[in-house]
Amino acid sequence: MVDTQGTAGLLAQSNQPNQPDQPSQPSQRNPHDTLERYGEPVIELTAARKVYSTGSIEFEALRGVDLEIRQGEYVAIMGPSGSGKSTLMNILGCLDVLTSGHYRLAGHDVDDLDEAELAEIRNKEIGFVFQQFNLLPSLEAWRNVELPLMYARVPGHERRERAERALERVGLGSRLGNKPGELSGGQQQRVAVARALVGEPTMILADEPTGNLDSVSTGDVLALFDELHELGRTIVLITHELEVARRARRIVFVRDGEIQDAPPGHEEGAPLREADPPRPQADASEADASEAEADAPAAGRRQNGAVA
Amino acid sequence: MNWAETFRTSWAAVHSHAMRSLLTVLGILIGIAAVIMTVGLGLGTQKDVSEQISSLGSNLLIVSPGSSTDSSGVRGGFGTGATLTTADAAALASSVNAPDIAGVAAEKTTSLSLEANDTNWTTTVTGTTPSWLDVRSRDLIAGEFITDDDEASSAAVTVLGSEAATELFGTTNVVGQSVTIDDRTFEIVGVLASAGSDSSSNLDDVAIVPMSTAATQLIGGVGSNTVSTIYLKAAGDGVLAAAYQEAQGVLLNLHSISDADSADFTISSQDALVDTATSIYRTLTVLLTGIAALSLLVGGIGVMNIMLVSVTERTREIGLRKALGAPPWAIRRQFLVEAAILGLAGGLLGAVLGIGAALALPGVIGSSIVVSPAAVGVSIGVAIAIGLVFGVYPATRAARLAPIDALRSE
């Protein structure tokens, strides 16, 4: 129960600004959002198609998707199961390649790369957070965290240092030597986040990061994402939970292998420039603007949900 | 991921399934132990043979009588005849007839009872000439050997082997004492240094007497001038074959036999002894090598099997490592190293077992086993190689896993 204490302390620290009054939170952030963030495109997906063939049956998982995500954005990709969002996540994570179309990640053309080159891209540009945590049970927390650095051939002492810093960053500085089995689910996911951070990747790709967590741990992990966003990290979060998606600054809906027309103000390509400048003003004047903004996709989602 | 980390990761994988890993390497373990035993037995046999050779004297040719045919026409075995005589020995000693033969010692041997101070001891009594000491490469620890004068006068003197002396007197300090052989009293003039035993007899349990004394006083029989064996010493290592040819020529000529195939004598050399030992060893080697090879094959398949299990069990881990940036070669290397560690473990354990058996077995089977560090080193290398060879397929399968499929597996 010492453990609970530690977690509680951490929760208090990270959640207090968020929890009581959600709308007030963006107002503190938005100046950063416009000035430093949203720089160069990190993800440029053009006419992306992915076709799976099982025997004679062909299934088109992605049907010409265009998507641009810029440096510093916090984007949620939502969609019901079977919508193609997992396929999209695999493509964005360079775990799979397109059947046709183009994908540029942080300026690299990913389409023609072989397995080894894709591995290097994943190592350098992407920090993965999975629903199942995917920690290696036999390794201590810091050894799990240092794994990406190992494949990046960072020397041993530097790895340990950076792994420890990353763990301290996620509030697990006192748990360096614990194995995953000795940590709670929330703590394990934070170790996974530390592992995603440690290599300083261009973007963090989180696939249902809260899917296996209780509400307290969920809040914990999402607060961590908020903080990382604040620090300028690009975060792409795949989820089917609206509550989770709402924490992002932009929501992309995937349905039947296509990106749904986003509600007003969330069109692809344009929305950032159009939506962003008003934000600081809106936030400075009316705190509810961003809540309204966050609710809009929620409404869209509800409609879709009703249809489906 | 550098080598040290790869080793650490792979070792952790092997170590986390210690019992399974141990059972996996059992085949390799037995194979390697068999290899070490085989090589050790071979080396041990060689050592035994070379000791025997040095105990018999180097450059030695042994002339044995041919077979005898008794009155009913039954042909006896080699050495049963009485075809060799002192005249043959004299002819072979001639430097004109046989220039490459440096020494000749004929032996006339029988088993007799010796008696001293109420102690009886049956030993091999050998009548021979003074050249015997040199030809057989023997030494004295006390007194002197029989002399030409003893031979000429058929003197009643004897030189005892160290064991015969000890059995009779309890000591080898017996020069000047008397011993009774076949009711005749002999003076002990010398004692032979110990030489061990050869394949057929104990070289220390003997009593040497002058040839003439043996022929006239101790061993009667068919002819007083027949001998049981003639030992020839070649003039050098390189002329053993020439000495063999000369001895054969002289004896065929003397026995008026034109065809070497129907010779009434046999000349054997140390080479023949070595050949016999080698052929026995070769049979053993083939047998043990077969066992070793089979065992190593089975062991290798075991390693492959368990590596495939390991890859399947850790599909998710492989997927994760790939997602985090492990290129295919790093995954392949990790599993190859794991297989090599299994091989190495089998090799080391096999070496321990093999060396242990090599230390324990000689007491049981009575032949020496020599552990050769080179053989141990090579076997361990082979064990690692087996791990690697049989690890290639599982490791390649791991390296080829698609990251998404691997991540999704349960």
Low-confidence stretches of chain B: none
Q: Could you say which overall geometry of chain A the principal axes of the C-alpha atoms support?
A: globular
Helix content of chain A: 40-55%
Low-confidence stretches of chain A: 1-37, 263-308
CATH homologous group name of chain A: P-loop containing nucleotide triphosphate hydrolases
Number of domains of chain A: 1
Q: What is the total domain count of chain B?
A: 2
How many helix segments of chain A? 12
What structural class do the secondary elements of chain A suggest? alpha/beta
Rg of chain B to the nearest angstrom?
A: 33 Å
CATH class (first level) name of chain A: Alpha Beta
**pLDDT averaged over residues of chain B:** 83
Separation of the first and last Cα atoms of chain B: 26 Å
Strand order of the largest sheet of chain B: 2-3-8-5-7-6
Order of strands, widest sheet of chain A: 6-7-8-3-9-10
User: What does the main sheet of chain B amount to?
Assistant: 6 strands, mixed, barrel
Quaternary structure of the protein = heterodimer
Tally of contiguous helical segments of chain B? 15
Overview of the molecule:
- The complex is a heterodimer of chains A (308) and B (410).
- With 308 residues, chain A is α/β, with parallel strands linked by helices.
- Chain A has twelve helices and ten strands.
- Chain A has one domain (2-307): Rossmann fold (3-Layer(aba) Sandwich), CATH 3.40.50.300.
- Chain A is 44% helix and 21% strand.
- Chain A has a six-stranded mixed beta sheet, with helices on both faces.
- In chain A, 47% of the residues are buried.
- Mean pLDDT of chain A is 76; it is low at 1-37 and 263-308.
- By secondary structure, chain B is of the alpha+beta class.
- Chain B folds into two domains: 3-51 and 275-408, no CATH class; 82-263, no CATH class.
- Helices cover 55% and strands 17% of the residues of chain B.
- Chain B is built from 15 helices and ten strands.
- Chain B has helices at 3-16, 18-24, 26-56, 86-93, 132-135, 148-153, 162-169, 211-218, 240-254, 270-313, 315-323, 328-360, 362-365, 373-400, 403-408; strands at 60-65, 101-116, 119-128, 140-143, 157-160, 178-181, 184-192, 206-210, 229-234, 265-269.
- Chain B has a six-stranded mixed beta barrel with strand order 2-3-8-5-7-6, surrounded by four helices.
- In chain B, a hairpin with a 2-residue loop joins strand 6 and strand 7.
- The mean pLDDT of chain B is 83.
- The chains are: A alpha/beta (308), B alpha+beta (410).
- The interface between A and B is medium-sized, with 24 and 22 residues.
- Chain B: Keywords: Cell membrane, Membrane, Transmembrane, Transmembrane helix.
- Chain B: It comes from Herbiconiux daphne.
